[in-house]
Amino acid sequence: MSIKPILFENGELLLLDQRVLPVEETWLRYTDYRKVAEAIRNMVVRGAPAIGVTAAFGAALGAREIAAPNFDAFFTEFEQVCALLAATRPTAVNLFWALERMKVCAQSHRALPLAELKERLLAEALEIAEDDELINRAMGGHGAALIPDGGRVLTHCNAGALATAGYGTALGVIRAAVEAGKKVAVLADETRPWLQGARLTAWELQRDNIPVTLICDNMAGYLMSQGEIDCVIVGADRIAANGDTANKIGTYTVAVLAKEHGLPFYVAAPTSTIDLSLTSGKLIPIEERDRREVTHSGERQLAPDGVAVRNPAFDVTPARLITAIITEHGVARGDFLTQLRQLCNQGG
Amino acid sequence: MSIKPILFENGELLLLDQRVLPVEETWLRYTDYRKVAEAIRNMVVRGAPAIGVTAAFGAALGAREIAAPNFDAFFTEFEQVCALLAATRPTAVNLFWALERMKVCAQSHRALPLAELKERLLAEALEIAEDDELINRAMGGHGAALIPDGGRVLTHCNAGALATAGYGTALGVIRAAVEAGKKVAVLADETRPWLQGARLTAWELQRDNIPVTLICDNMAGYLMSQGEIDCVIVGADRIAANGDTANKIGTYTVAVLAKEHGLPFYVAAPTSTIDLSLTSGKLIPIEERDRREVTHSGERQLAPDGVAVRNPAFDVTPARLITAIITEHGVARGDFLTQLRQLCNQGG
To answer: How much is the pTM?
Structure first.
């Protein structure tokens, strides 16, 4: 069974520290929502769905702290808790989606005594986490048919169990194909600078006995040119209404390469990743992270002192390069504008 | 003045150890050609022209050791010296070109007393090194016009002074553009797994006060999509008669991206990198290097134990993706088959 990187036990949030995998498996414990915000910012946890789930637990922990005389006073403080959690990372929309769901939950239960409301908010966070894994399994069910038997599938970054509450989005589709009896070999882009592919994707697939071969990001084009890749599947951090997809930096390059080689390029993401408020991917904010992620590997210096660095953490793949978007409600192809809206409404 | 990474002083070959740059500037000294072969294999020195120059000095050092009664006996042993030096790295043709030139030199001076012949071989190696820098400056003269004033130029790997006897091929063209008064900003792909861009290109450009910004390999596509790159220039390890170009892994991907964005893609290489014996790039042997280059950064483990790895060190960019090939004798465009042959003949 695939790993679950986010647990809630005995009133504490437990996060598997993704900064030190695969060499160490360390669980960190949180009761303070401010520390949860830091954990999101510092990438103890990462991956759009996992960030959403973690933020929901953070909001529930924050709610627990609030000493207010009535709902309105409570809600004002709760909004501040949510704002702090929201200010951690700008690109993945699941973060805002999950916090919005928590605020709606609070409003819907405004009549409850505050102690019970706080319990309800924790129950909501637990439900978001449970839903997430169910959603991923549904996505796997819809997507498995797209993975060819004997297929050699390239993935970028980690859209696996570690990026979610469990099972994974892109890797969930691969897991579902394997569970359906298909033979699948995964090629994992190492995914500089943070090496989610080398450290996380390789680790979780190896753990589940799914064959995985690690490559540097700049090798995928060569392997495609040699006929050694059959399709590409990635996750998403935010999908605009027209299908333009923000995902880990380098995804766009893989999509251009897939087009050049006539290979299908699939995105797997829950409908909570779809942001219908944005008409195009150009409107998705792209986080730039610290230069040290590029210039150092742990303590080892890789570049000369003081060199200028760019470190965008995401890029946007235009819809025209995407063969299909796999969600928990079905697969969108072609007319994303209409189909994504329909898929989102099925959730309602 | 740009650095010269290969020197010959007091009967010793000196190599700037490129494995430890930019953190350490260490010069290693060689008198034994077997150690020179190891230095090429272990990438103390790398870059097609630099490998050729180093091998020539290795051959001269090897010749010095040979105790033979006559030319034929000498030459038999000299061929073994050259074979050992040739067996270090398969892709860069300059290695074989330089060793061939040394053998031709020996044959041309077979009438000399052996002590004098050995001196002549050392003189030939010195000439190859001096020629290399002159060739790079000539290449710069031809190529500088292609670099736009105010241009933001992407380069991959290190085709700089450190990849040659001095001045560089692709970076030589950039240096020549700067010397001609143009404002040029370089974007350097870090170039996984060996990080020639981060460790070498950034270092040597910074040293020469040419603005350089370091990016991960998977960021170039994003920056192109944002209109932040104006052209691409790279070096080459071997160019087939039809213009197909083997260069550092990832070059092909950059070329596909350049095409997608309508950007010029230039290759700068001496005619000694052109292998007219190969009709197409498909025939160029591609070296696969040790998995540890991908799984570790120094002593730091980046991937789970035992994960499968691919590590091709080069890829082939088809001629159709190349705007122009800049050599010391001029610039080839379009009909590479005819033009490369003409440029090579001008050297004769």
So the answer is: 0.97
Nearest CB to A315; choose among B214, B222, B252: B222
Same domain, B40 and B120: yes
Q: Give the pLDDT confidence score for residue A1 in this predicted structure.
A: 73
Counted domains in chain A: 2
Beta strands in A212-348 (DSSP E): 212-215, 231-234, 238-240, 245-248, 265-268, 274-275, 296-297, 300-301, 308-309, 314-317, 324-327, 330-332
Positions of A marked active-site: 237
- Answer whether residue B323 is part of any domain: yes
Contact A302 B199 (CB under 8 A): yes
Residue B223 with chain A: CB contacts under 8 Å = 310
When scoring A204, A208, A222 by the number of chain B Cβ atoms within 10 A, the one with the most, hence best to mutate, is A222
Q: Tens digits of per-residue pLDDT, B224-256?
A: 999 999 999 999 999 999 999 999 999 999 999
Alpha-carbon gap, residue A195 to A217, rounded angstroms: 10
Cα distance between residue A133 and residue A169, in whole Å: 9
pLDDT band at B99 (very low <50, low <70, confident <90, very high): very high
DSSP string computed for B23-72:
T---EEEE--HHHHHHHHHTTSS-SHHHHHHHHHHHHHHHHHH---SSHH
Sheet order of strands, A27-30 included: A6-9, A12-16, A27-30
Q: Which residues of chain A have pLDDT under 50?
A: none
Q: Does B20 touch chain A (CB under 8 A)?
A: no
Q: How far is B208 from chain A (nearest CA, A)?
A: 13
- Write the CATH number for A272: 3.40.50.10470
pLDDT digit string (tens) for B46-65? Answer: 999 999 999 999 999 999 99
Mutate to test the interface with A, among B187, B196, B253 (most CBs of A within 10 A): B253
The reply to whether A133 touches chain B by the CB within 8 Å rule is: no
pLDDT confidence tier of residue B24, bands split at 50, 70 and 90: very high
Same domain, A121 and A265: no
**Domain co-membership, B78 together with B45:** yes
For residue range B251-270, list pLDDT tens digits in order. Answer: 999 999 999 999 999 999 99
B128 and B259 together in one domain: no
| Pairing of the two strands A296-297 and A245-248 | unpaired
**Chain A residues closer than 8 Å to B253 by CB:** 218, 220-222, 253, 257
The domain containing residue A68 runs over which residues?
Answer: 6-137
Examine the pLDDT at B85 and tell me if it is beyond 70: yes
Is residue B1 over pLDDT 90? no
Q: What is the CATH number of the domain that holds B35?
A: 1.20.120.420
Residue A1 maps to a domain? no
Q: Are residues A333 and A241 in the same domain?
A: yes
pLDDT at B348: 52
Question: Side by side, which strands form the sheet with B12-16?
Answer: B6-9, B12-16, B27-30
Which of B216, B260, B265, B305 should one mutate to test binding to chain A, selecting the residue with the greatest count of A CBs within 10 A?
A: B216
Residues B69 and B182 in one domain: no
- Is the same domain home to A168 and A305? yes
ipTM: 0.96
Of A95, A119, A137, the last residue of a domain is A137
| Residue B194 within a domain | yes
Coil vs helix vs strand at A68 = coil
The residue among A103, A137, A171 that closes a domain is A137
Tell me, yes or no, if A263 comes closer than 8 A to chain B by beta carbon: no
User: CB B225 to CB A315 under 8 A?
Assistant: yes
User: How far is the C-alpha of B216 from the C-alpha of B223, rounded, in Å?
Assistant: 11
Is there a domain that residue B1 lies in? Answer: no
Could you tell me if B231 lies within 8 Å of chain A, comparing CB atoms? no
Residues A152 and A132 in one domain: no
